[in-house]
Amino acid sequence: MTSSPPPRPTPGKSRREFLGTLASGLGVSAAGLAAAPRASARPLATTWNLRAVQTSYDFADGTALPFFRFAPSGGGGRRGQLPYFEATEGDAVDVIIDNQLPIALRPALIGVAEGPEIAAGTSGVFSFTMPPAGSYLFGHAPPRFSSRSHGPVAHPTHSGLSASVTSRPTSGQQELYNGGPTFDREYGLIYEDADSRINQTMGGTTPSRTKPYEPNYFTVNGLAFPDSASDPDTIVSGSLGEDILIRFGNFGRMRQSIHFHGYHAQIVTQNTVPDATMPPKDTIAVPYHTTVDVILTPNQAGVYPLHPHSLTAVTANGFYPLGALALIDIT
Ligand SMILES: [Cu+2]
Question: What's the CATH superfamily of 47-168?
């Protein structure tokens, strides 16, 4: 696929001016970014291979920040930079992890199952049964005292071990769960935040435990703007009147409220529990370690921003507009 990257933002340029430039650039390149609908009855993998590695990401403020990341090496794919895996509910799954990090890790399907500790430089297997159909986060097991949406949140000493898992319904239909909402396309948008003081000492003999945790870098699918605006898994593309499922998830310690420009979206599940109590909304709360699924049915064509409502999360160490800014592109 050929798509020229959008113009890089100039810090200091006005937001309106910048988004205008961006929209006109994308108009040319957006054709062909449509995600293929899932072919039903496609056999799904039950083994997922991951390597845990040290990487670095270049933010557009000029900072190269270290991350600990999972890299897919079999059985799954990627959405943006982050590994993605899908299997059918009820299936037995083995996740084989080659831990090349200088620290031990303990994998978890957040809120569902926790795996064995895997020492630095060793491999291990995390086996679990796929939970009921829905959207899940896969990462490092949180300390016991944390909870999924309330109370104290783990103070990170590393960041970036983030992945997403979709449990597919046994019906084999393109629906969220058996008999649940159907959709024409789907996307997954996973948010993270990082405090550069922690990332810069990860893996060293004296990792920073700087408190308070003050995130200053923000990503969506492991990408920061403008990279997020040239990634086909991160640009929410579709056509007028389609039902576009967006699976939001948040690994960041910061609670995010994801804001739509141009559209309202219907919440359908929160943490995989059906929830139709809200009317369509333009802002969707996604707390730490939770998933929220929404269906967007576009009523107008155009290119619009989709971003955390907190302005901090749309910056890279204060430079705007970088950070966890994504786009919706409707034709
Ligand atoms: Cu906005």
Answer: Cupredoxins -  blue copper proteins (2.60.40.420)
